[in-house]
Amino acid sequence: MSPERRLLLVGAGHAHLHLLRHASRLAAAGYRTTLVAPARFDYSGTASGIAAGGRDPAEGRLDVAALACHHVDHRHGLVTAVDPVARTATADDGSRHEWDVVSFNIGSVADVPPGTTNGAAVVRVKPLSDLTGLRERLQDPPAGRGHHVTVVGAGASGIELAAHLAARDDTDLVHLLEHGSRIGGFLPRRAAQRLLGLLETRGIRVVAQADPVRIDDNAVLLRDGTRIPHDVVVVATGLVSPPLATRSPLGGPRGFPVRATLQHRDHDDVYATGDCADFLPVTLPRIGVHGVRQGPVLLAALEARPSGALAPVYRPQANALSILDLGGGTALAVRGRWWWLGRSSMALKRRIDRRWLATYRN
Ligand SMILES: Cc1cc2nc3c(=O)[nH]c(=O)nc-3n(C[C@H](O)[C@H](O)[C@H](O)COP(=O)(O)OP(=O)(O)OC[C@H]3O[C@@H](n4cnc5c(N)ncnc54)[C@H](O)[C@@H]3O)c2cc1C
Q: Distance (Å, rounded) from C-alpha 58 to C-alpha 132?
């Protein structure tokens, strides 16, 4: 039996949730596991419907503390600094945690454009705890009229949020601003056309080639001088790795740089998964499916370490299924060139989300 090794898990994203569920296997492999992470996890698959629609926040919430109650020492909080030489991580309560092996799964944050202020009416899509601020702002419409909301960025999450906002009875005006020349450039052309039709039917004012120079509590100011006033603005201009993954001694410009084995480029004892990782073999989009599929690879890698067995590698799927929840019971499912817009796509999405969440609730 090899000596017990200290395994430090930072963050409870998708891949680490898988480890927590199989913590007894880590214990059997000789690890003493510590987790530093908030007590709850918010699932992004339900985030738009919760923040901008009528869904209950409990629908997408997982109890990390309950999942980590066997074989794991769970310290509630966030890691703020890492020291790869001393092999320690410091948490926001000042506590220090030593590791023999460390794994990061801390997600991403919104890529906020320059000129964006920190006002209460400026909501960032990530972390998801910030996005729930939108739900609170929408509780009371201004006197005598409905909400005026602007969504900046027409990627998947911006489109979802704008569509949900426009489906609300208490919203009068939704602007969706896109830097590029058209909406849905990442979708098959016909799917993008159908989507645009749906957005127009919902009364969304789409502004393409929009270049915001200032985003504040009252308005978005575009470079051409156009001023678009709002009650609340959502910044959905993309996701980037958090500062711990870009500015710490282990970080790189796009996140913790990892090989196909999910190990750090320069450190065999350091792993990273999901949005905070810069997967060096191929650039991966920041979508939950990679964190989900990396979980079993990471678990197998950690189990293989003590015996010196060959490390497994992560092979990303070429065409992952993605489903945009557009509110009003409708969704757009896309896989490669195949797509379907309608209620059956939403039923499929609900089934997939429910099944995944149930895995971590039972
Ligand atoms: C509105 C919206 C909708 C989306 N919808 C979808 C979708 O339908 N399908 C899809 O595939 N993707 C979707 N995404 C993208 C998705 O959110 C991310 O790709 C996915 O969550 C990344 O998973 P992860 O496991 O890397 O991290 P996360 O799911 O973000 O989990 C990271 C966890 O780490 C914790 N953490 C953060 N910092 C620290 C720290 N310093 N120390 C300790 N813990 C920390 C966080 O609290 C969080 O619980 C959506 C994104 C947004 C913004």
A: 12
Q: Which of 34, 36, 79, 106 to mutate to test the pocket of ligand 1 (most atoms within 8 A of CB)?
A: 106
Pair type for strands 122-124 and 96-98: unpaired
Q: Which residues contact 60 (CB under 8 A, 6 or more apart)?
A: 42, 43, 44, 45, 46, 47, 50, 353, 357
Q: Is the CB of 106 within 6 Å of ligand 1? A: yes
Domains and CATH numbers, the chain: 5-108+241-307 (3.50.50.60), 110-238 (3.50.50.60), 320-362 (no CATH)
Q: How far is the CA of 4 from the centre of ligand 1 (A)?
A: 31
CA 106 / ligand 1 centre spacing (Å) = 7
Select from 11, 41, 33 the least CA-distant residue to 275: 11
- Please tell me the residue having the least CA distance from ligand 1 atom 22: 288
Q: Angle between the 288-304 and 14-21 helix axes, to the nearest 10 degrees?
A: 40
Secondary structure of residue 285 in the 3-state scheme: coil
pLDDT digits over 163-216, tens only?
999 999 999 999 999 999 999 999 999 999 999 999 999 999 999 999 999 999
Strands 277-279 and 256-258: parallel
- For residue 62, the CA-to-ligand 1 centroid distance in Å is 13
The protein residue with its alpha carbon nearest to ligand 1, atom 45, reads 11
Single pTM value for the model: 0.96
